[in-house]
Amino acid sequence: MRSLIHSRRIDRKALSLVLALSLGAPLQVVAAEAPTASSSEAQAREKFSEGNLAYDLGEFDRGLKAFSEAYRLKPLPAFLFNIAQCQRQLNNPSRAAFFYRRYLALSSEEPANADVVRELIAEMDNKVRVQEEQRRERERFTRDRELQRAREQAALAEARASQAKLAANPSAAQEKNGASEALAMQVPEGAVTAQDSKPWSRRWYVWAGVGAAAVLAGGAVWLATAPNPRDTTLGTVGR
Predict the structure, then answer these.
(1) Read out DSSP for 126-194?
(2) Residue of 19, 45, 13, 21 lying closest to 117 (CA atoms)
(3) What count of other Cβ atoms lies within 10 Å of the Cβ of residue 74?
(4) Which position has the higher pLDDT, 112 or 211?
(5) What percent of the chain has pLDDT over 70?
(6) Cα–Cα distance measured from residue 95 to residue 124, given in angstroms and rounded to the nearest whole number
(7) What is the per-residue pLDDT across 189-213, written as a single tens digit (0 to 9) for each?
(8) DSSP H helical segments within 74-113, as ranges?
(9) CA distance 230 to 235
(10) How far, CA to CA in Å, does 13 sit from each of 83, 149, 189?
(11) Residue burial 77-112, b: 16+ Cβ < 10 Å; e: rest
């Protein structure tokens, strides 16, 4: 939070320093020595004003372009700080950190805002790490989603292939269904249980046994009451 407050305070100050220190008094000396340089510095001054106005309006893309052109016309390190500020506002922390470092490295003396710039560099580096983690998380999510989609498509393709195979050879499905029906007909459901569930008085083998027993009993009675019953013992030889 402290670095953000400081960065806001130095936005306007730094932009003003570029014009006051770099395009102020030295402009008359350079103009006297090299007329062509006067034109370059005048154009740099114009681009600086254009970038400053765009920055105040929040048009950071336009400000970045103007400050970059000003640096090409007159490569002053202070312009690099302005470029870094635009990159920071555009949420390009990697590029912002690069230009902050170039600003410190190319300054002939340590700038007055060097400590704040170092804080901004640390802030941008941290944002770069956060963005990298978010990028990896998005890639991981995309890979998982694509893998799930591939699995679903493979399952759908397999189901369609199975349906196409059955449609191309319907006799196989009919034979399978016929075999199942034949097996079911061989063992009627409830056949055994239905037979066993009949009462004993309605079973034919019970009455057959009763009839046989009655016949045997009647024969025994007749033999016992006959006038000359037959000898039921074995005879001996010569009897």
Answers:
(1) HHHHHHHHHHHHHHHHHHHHHHHHHHHHHHHHHHHHHHHHHHH-HHHHHHHHHHHHHHHHHS-TTHHHH
(2) 13
(3) 21
(4) 112
(5) 55
(6) 9
(7) 555 454 555 565 566 655 666 566 6
(8) 77-89, 93-106
(9) 12
(10) 14, 55, 99
(11) bbbbbbbbbbbbbeebbebbbbbbbebbeebeeebe
Using CA atoms, how far apart are residues 199 and 119, in angstroms rounded to an integer?
103
Tokens 């740099």 locate to 44
Cβ atoms of residues 22 and 78 within 8 Å = yes
Residue entry with tokens 């008094």: 25
Q: Which two tokens stand for residue 28?
A: 């008359």
8 A C-beta contact, residue 198 and residue 207 = no
CA–CA separation, 47 vs 18, rounded Å? 12
Which residues, at least 6 apart from 13, have a Cβ–Cβ distance to it below 8 Å?
113
Residue 125 to residue 100: CA distance in whole angstroms: 11
The whole-number average pLDDT for the span 73-96 is 97
pTM, two decimal places: 0.52
Cα distance between residue 86 and residue 88, in whole Å = 5
Which has the higher per-residue pLDDT, 6 or 21?
6
